[in-house]
Design a protein that fits this description.
Blueprint lengths: L22 E13 L2 E12 L1 H12 L12 E5 L21 E2 L1 E2 L3 E3 L4 E11 H4 L3 E2 L1 E5 L7 E6 L6 E2 L4 E13 L5
Antiparallel strand pairs: 1-2, 1-12, 2-10, 3-4, 3-9, 5-7, 6-7, 7-12, 8-11, 9-10
Length: 184
């Protein structure tokens, strides 16, 4: 029995080139020290995801019935000790004894040119929250209190951040999932 030809027509084919490359996670963290509305310094740092982040992506893709909100970045934690990063970490090395900051989320951005999906997150840390402490690590968490670290950035020793009175630290954290830039 012959198949019937579809009657609807697609007006235009998408102009996205499909390539067979592995998918990777890349985080871009932009730190801005602000004095009121004036930019004092800007730092651009790469971050690393934890196994917990990748596990959450895996659960989502497999259609698991677990509570996926346990894997969604919702809070920013701040730490004061510079250590190398480890993908099995579930907490910062030395998180400050302050409340985690609720993250702002923006619309997911799709960029077909570079085959990437970007999930933008942001937060502001005012001087009054950290006073004279030096910020040397930041982490994304799914809960306000427990060990649910999803991604972490270590601020290099040359750019450790100590806010002065009247300053704030603006964090713009882009979670980027894309095809690897390596060739086949």
């Amino acid at each position: 029995m012959a198949r019937k030809k579809a009657t609807s027509q697609v007006s235009e084919k998408p102009k996205v080139k499909i390539v067979q490359k592995p998918i990777n996670y890349d985080g871009n963290v932009h730190l801005k020290v602000m004095q009121g509305d004036t930019l004092v310094k800007r730092y651009d740092i790469k971050n690393s995801g934890t196994m917990r982040l990748f596990q959450g992506i895996g659960y989502f893709l497999s259609g698991s019935t677990i509570n996926l909100s346990e894997y969604k970045p919702k809070y920013l934690g701040t730490g004061v000790v510079l250590q190398t990063t480890d993908p099995t970490m579930t907490s910062l090395y030395n998180e400050m004894n302050i409340s985690r900051i609720l993250l702002n989320t923006d619309n997911i951005s799709l960029n077909a040119y570079i085959n990437a999906v970007t999930i933008p997150l942001s937060a502001v840390i005012p001087y009054s929250t950290v006073t004279d402490s030096t910020i040397s690590e930041l982490g994304l968490f799914s809960t306000p209190t427990s060990n649910t670290l999803l991604a972490r950035v270590v601020v290099p020793s040359s750019t450790r951040i100590t806010l002065k009175q009247g300053q704030s630290l603006v964090i713009e954290w882009d979670l980027v999932i894309q095809n690897s830039k390596e060739s086949n």
